[in-house]
Amino acid sequence: MRRHLKQSWVRRGAAALAVPAAVAGAAGWAWAAAGGDAAPGGFTPTDWFRVMNFVVLAGVLFFLLRKPIPRALNSRIRGIEDQLKDLEAKKSEAEKQLAEYNQKLSDMEKDVERIVADYVRQGQEAKARILKEAESAAEKLQAQARRNIEHEFEQTKAQLQREIFEKALAKAEELLKQNITGEDQTQLVEEYLQKVVAL
Asked: What is the structure's pLDDT at 22?
């Protein structure tokens, strides 16, 4: 690429110098064809002198600038090549960083999936534990309720038995009062006294 650019600039410089040289040559040839004398509307010796001065000046400039111009062009080419190399290096670095970021993104996605799986597992374990604790608490409540019911039943049963006993005793007392006579009372008192004396 550098050689191609250099050759292109050399061709342009040669073409730029060839045009004035061709003009000067054509003017000299026309002047010589006219017999070297000034013709109306043609070149005068002063014009010819100016053309020759221009050709000499162009040749001197070409001779003096033939090395600095290629050097400047070479320097510019090297600068462009360095910039291209820098751009290639930056592009390579950017591609490398992009690959690293893609890898990190992939790793992050895997981490997210793992974390979500861990949370799901922990949630299922917590659910199972809560259900087990709820079942245990329900069993304890059922056992406590059963004991409370049995206790209440026993208390109610005892209270009913007391009430039945009291009512039966009152009924028996009432029946005794209705059926016992004065003689029966006297006989009972005497039997009681005899038992007391016997003691």
From this structure: 52
Q: How many CB atoms lie within 10 A of CB 24?
A: 19
CA dist list (Å): 93 to 55, 101, 102, 105, 127: 54, 12, 14, 18, 50
Report the distance separating Cα 70 and Cα 3, nearest Å.
11
Residue bearing the bigger pLDDT, 159 or 16: 159
Count CB neighbours of 73 within 10 A.
17
User: Who's near 6: CB < 8 A, 6+ residues apart?
Assistant: 70, 73, 74, 77
Burial of 31 (0-12, 13-18, 19+ CB in 10 A): buried
Spatial contact of 38 and 45, defined as CB atoms under 8 Å apart? yes
Question: Who has greater pLDDT, 169 or 23?
Answer: 169
Please tell me the pTM assigned to this model: 0.34
Question: H-helix or E-strand containing 1?
Answer: none
Longest CA span, the chain: 202
